[in-house]
Amino acid sequence: MASTSTASSSQSSLPPSAFNPRRHVGVHAERVTDVSSTEYPGHYPDEDHSWDLAKFKENLRVEVKRLSQRSIEFDLVGVDASISNAFRRILIAEVPTIAIENVYVWNNTSVIHDEVLAHRIGLVPLNVDPTLFEFRDESNRQPTDRNTIVFKLQVECRVDTDTPKEKGAPKRYVNEIVRSGDLVWVPQGEQEAVMSHTKPGPTNKASRNIVLAKLRPGQEIEMDLHAIKGVGKEHAKWSPVATASYRLHPLIILKPDKPVPPEHAHKFAKCFSPGVIQVGPNGEISVDERSLRNESMSREVLRHKEFEGCVELKRIRDWFIFNVESEGPYKPQDLFAESIKVMRQKLTNIRQAAEALSADVDGAGVHPNGVATADGDVEMAGV
């Protein structure tokens, strides 16, 4: 019978802690088990699992696995799912960007209604650094060069009379397709000096070719567009990412007490994502841990009785594989850092509100950033 290697910390490229059963989520045919962490005070006798900053720093790890111009894949290890999910939600909904909000239509004789065209224009991603601008809130509604970017869209379609036409060829038109690249930035105040290094407009070549409308001779579009700073929880056009998701790191444990029969080795390998299971010349089975992160965990192997007891499917509870696609002014490698800034600000607001609640000034908590009510409640800004 062919020998079968088993995943163990002694022969693995994964860190030894990855094989700690306390970190594993069990993946079974019809259910998952051990989804919640048990490492908290009082669960294990004679073990202290109270939160410790030094231990947290030791276990925390962030490692970039893949980076391109528009996307990044990185591992976040050593945190609870609630923290990872908070970062995911912040990436989608709370990292600020600039998007077109106000559309002033002076002329639109195209077949697209003003509201539909304005909505399409608002979804065009812009390359403007949001740190250069302020939010426009209820107390600051007046457009200025510090909170508003102005674009102009003026396109008129006509018959092309300049290009020689071959006999029988169809008519050619000038400006028959209105694209996002037709947006023209109109500098206001000091904007031309501040943003001289990067001219505001769509983020990249692909977003400059977004079709906004199609025209025919005699049709024209003339608009003024005001772009402002916002966040994705107000409208998706301000979301800096096309997608931000995570999944738990897969783990495949081969059982040495019941090896896979060599005549079924290739069938066993086909139950997993390509490249995850390696089959030797004599039918021996091994796990390629460099490809293990690509495993889809389809559980196909659990459908076959001949493989029952040969393998255990796990996921590592605190090892998160993040995939983030940037669709805004941020480089992919900067997005996670921006989400950390937002998280830190949220924690600051909560701490200030808690301090305000604990203060005893005239029977109610007061704080510069916390407005106390008669019953002592405090409004938390920006949480």
Automatic annotation (TrEMBL):
Gene Ontology biological process: DNA-templated transcription
GO molecular function: DNA binding; DNA-directed RNA polymerase activity; protein dimerization activity
Cited SUPFAM superfamilies: Insert subdomain of RNA polymerase alpha subunit, RBP11-like subunits of RNA polymerase
Domain of life: Eukaryota
Annotated keywords: DNA-directed RNA polymerase, Nucleus, Transcription
Residue stretches of biased makeup (Low complexity): 1-17
A Pfam family it matches: RNA_pol_L
Region (Disordered): 1-27
Keyword Metal-binding tagged: no
DNA-directed RNA polymerase RpoA/D/Rpb3-type domain span: 71-353
GO CC annotation, single: RNA polymerase I complex
InterPro entries linked: DNA-dir_RNA_pol_30-40kDasu_CS, DNA-dir_RNA_pol_insert, DNA-dir_RNA_pol_RpoA/D/Rpb3, RBP11-like, RNAP_Rpo3/Rpb3/RPAC1, RNAPI/III_AC40, RNApol_insert_sf, Rpo3/RPB3_RNA_Pol_subunit
Record-stated family: Belongs to the archaeal Rpo3/eukaryotic RPB3 RNA polymerase subunit family.
NCBIfam families given in the database record: PRK00783.1 (NF001988)
Protein name: DNA-directed RNA polymerases I and III subunit RPAC1
Source species of the chain: Laetiporus sulphureus 93-53
Organism phylogeny: Eukaryota, Fungi, Dikarya, Basidiomycota, Agaricomycotina
